[in-house]
Amino acid sequence: MSKKAIAPLALTVVLAALLAGCVKHGHYAPGASATPAAGAADQALEARVEEMMLTSFKATGIASLDRQVRDEVQKACSSPVQPDAETMRRLEEGQMATIQWPSNGDFTGGDWKEGARIAISGRGLTWTDASPDNNGGGCYNCHAMDPGEVSAGTIGPSLVGYARLRGNSEEIVRYTWGKLWNAKAYNACSNMPRNGYGKILTETQIRHLMAYLFDPASPVNK
Ligand code: HEC
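# heme C complex -> structure
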């Protein structure tokens, strides 16, 4: 076996041990295991896994190592047992508080053509990017939007006919802005990236996406 294969193998062994630990305790709840000794052992193992993850990568360009650090929501949602309803509610409340509503109080003013460009672009955030300003939303990786676009993912629901089907009440407009800014405010364990909160997209870019979803002239609503 080559030397290179050893690191991933070691990680696999540690992860397997971690999972075996979970099975032994019947459920995964760090710090709340059946015995205090087992809880400490789980935590020590988890700390070692995190350390190994941190030392396995190096910061390059704009890709700094803070990307390795999971926040409270990511930790809860990547645990083998999903958070209970009360935890979900608390996490969502915290995420809701991070949403920045339009600075001028107005959700309109975007250009759907710009929105289309952002929705289809999957680039940005890679270490070679000089600045994050050229980021795209990668929306088509998960959603169908313009029915004329043949390549669309299905991880998220189809957004074809978004405003045509849902209208443009204040409630739906506000919800959509919030969802684009921080999807986890509405479903803590959502797979959708937190575009505004995560500084993937700017306020102006989110405004263009709003136009793409709501403008009657947008192909999404044809
Ligand atoms: C990695 C997959 C993924 C990407 C990328 C993604 N989404 Fe989503 N999106 C989802 C999922 C999954 C849902 C369903 C609700 C949930 O679990 O959050 C969703 C829900 C939504 C909703 C609410 C739909 C409803 O019926 O309530 C909107 C609007 C939306 N996404 C727009 C976008 C836009 C615009 C982009 C690009 C900036 C985008 N999404 C990128 C996965 C994704």
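# post-check
Residues 119, 137-139, 141-143, 155-157, 159, 176, 179-180, 183, 187, 190-193, 195, 209 surround heme C (CB under 6 Å).
The longest helix spans residues 36-56.
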